[in-house]
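Reminder to self: tokens first, then the designed residues, so the page reads top to bottom the way the pipeline ran.
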């Protein structure tokens, strides 16, 4: 990759809020820690179930202002991309209050993507989450390829363009 292309790609990723993981070069990979968590309906879901897909993995909580701010844009992004067979959005709640608190929030905010419960923040710790919201992009091979800390506008024009290109669209 040329220096000019690298700088332009880095700038584009910065503008949409995604940055290379710890400054890694594109040929370097970090395996995403596998996990199994419960859904709000008390069903087990594992990250490995999504092998072969790009996974948008977001850590959040119902009491987190920036998390609440970004949820509507996550839902809009999900609505635009959910028909893609190679994309999945997972939101991992670290709320200590359990499923009922999270269910109420999800219902009130009309969220339709998959929400998982990490009451003890063990999965968040495995990903090195230092603050929320924190978002990780995992490739079809199960490697973390990007991360973003803090709230983002996930359905902005630049963000949509990035995801469409990555998923093999437009």
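Designed residues (170 positions):
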């Amino acid at each position: 990759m040329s220096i000019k292309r690298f700088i332009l790609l880095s700038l584009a990723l910065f503008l949409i809020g995604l940055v290379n993981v710890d400054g890694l070069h594109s040929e370097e990979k970090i395996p995403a820690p596998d996990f199994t968590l419960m859904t709000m309906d008390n069903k087990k879901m594992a990250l490995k179930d999504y092998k072969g897909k790009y996974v948008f993995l977001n850590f959040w909580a119902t009491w987190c202002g920036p998390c609440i701010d970004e949820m509507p844009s996550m839902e809009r992004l999900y609505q635009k991309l959910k028909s893609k067979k190679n994309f999945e959005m997972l939101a991992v709640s670290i709320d200590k209050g359990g499923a009922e608190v999270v269910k109420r929030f999800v219902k009130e905010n009309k969220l339709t993507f998959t929400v998982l419960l990490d009451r003890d923040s063990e999965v968040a710790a495995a990903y090195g989450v230092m603050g929320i919201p924190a978002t990780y992009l995992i490739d079809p091979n199960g490697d973390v390829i990007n991360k973003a800390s803090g709230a983002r506008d996930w359905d902005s024009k630049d963000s949509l363009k990035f995801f469409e290109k990555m998923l093999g669209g437009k």
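Residues 65-81 form the longest helix (17 residues).
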